[in-house]
Each structure stands twice: as C-alpha cells, then as structure tokens.
Design brief:
Elements (H helix, E strand, L loop, with lengths): L10 E10 L2 E11 L2 E8 L3 E6 L4 E7 L5 E7 L1 H18 L6 E7 L4 E6 L6 E4 L3 H11 L7 H13 L3
Parallel strand pairs: 3-7, 4-8, 7-9
Antiparallel strand pairs: 1-2, 2-3, 4-5, 5-6
C-alpha cells in the first residue's frame, strides 16, 4: 500500500525469488524508477529491535500485556538486504548494467523502534509511524544514478526474466 504512492514511472516488483547460478534470494520489493534501483526488506515487527548493525543476529523485545517482556533473536535484515543487493548487482552486471543499488530495511509496524549501534550512511533503516513517509522521501529524492525510461523498461525485463 505504501509503495503504491510512488509515481507511475516507478515499477514496484513484489515478492521476488531471484535465482543467479546456485544462489537464490527471496526479495520483498525491487523498485526501479527514475531515481534508481532499490531493494527493500520489509519487517512487520512490533517492539524494539536492538543490537549491533554488523551482527548476524539482533534482538526483538516486545512488551507483553502483563508488563513482562519477550525477547527473541532475529536474523539481521541489514545483512539480508545487503546480500540481496550484491546478487542483483551480479545479475545486472551480466547484462552490462552497472547501476548502484540502494538497499533499505523498513520496519512497518507503527509500534516498532530500532536501536542499533554502528549504523552508517549505507544503512537505510526506516521504522515506526513516520517511517513510511521517510522511506518514500528517500526513494523520490535519491541522487544515485538516474534512469531513463528505456533503461527502466530494460532493467524491469531483466529482473522479471530472472525470477521464479
């Protein structure tokens, strides 16, 4: 629903199983538009996500109705989306496209809060109530590699024909 607010010249490809050689990636969203190519890993998690942005596992802590808390480990979506970006880059490279791919993690639940250490400029993390608006603003204002209409169409075809 959030990504449907993007202008019509942005293609949103959902639930992509990208296969490159022996490697497979389940990608939530690939967006191809005039401002560039984006991969978004979406998580609908309620609670606080904490840990080090570089660690394999993070902690998700949710407050329960009785006042206690429930903490579970989750695989780090920053690492997951980074791997997806590398795989898509390899695919595009095979077709002589050398575009930068922006990767993002979006925690969509309004009651999510992210408290990660060692975040850097390449970690695009959006969460909570206004996170969706910030994500859209990021995509629309991205200053990576601009894409022409013919290039957008070609990239869309490459992605579609490489998916299961």
């Amino acid at each position: 629903e959030l990504l449907s607010r993007l202008p019509k010249d942005f293609y949103v490809i959902t639930d992509v199983e990208l296969v490159i050689g022996q490697k497979t990636a389940q990608i939530d969203y690939i967006i191809i538009g005039p401002t560039g190519i984006f991969i978004i890993e979406a998580k609908n998690l309620k609670g606080t996500i904490s840990g080090n942005a570089k660690d394999e596992m993070l902690l998700k802590t949710k407050l329960l109705k009785d006042g206690s808390s429930d903490t579970k480990q989750i695989y780090n979506p920053l690492l997951q989306v980074s791997t997806h970006g590398r795989l898509l880059s390899k695919l595009l490279f095979k077709h002589k496209y050398y575009n930068e791919i922006a990767t993002c993690v979006y925690f969509s639940h309004p009651a999510s809060e992210v408290k990660l250490t060692d975040l850097n400029a390449e970690n695009n993390v959006f969460y909570g109530g206004l996170g969706g608006d910030k994500l859209l603003h990021y995509i629309l204002g991205y200053t990576g590699h601009g894409l022409s209409k013919p290039k957008i169409k070609k990239l869309k075809k490459i992605v579609f024909f490489s998916c299961r």
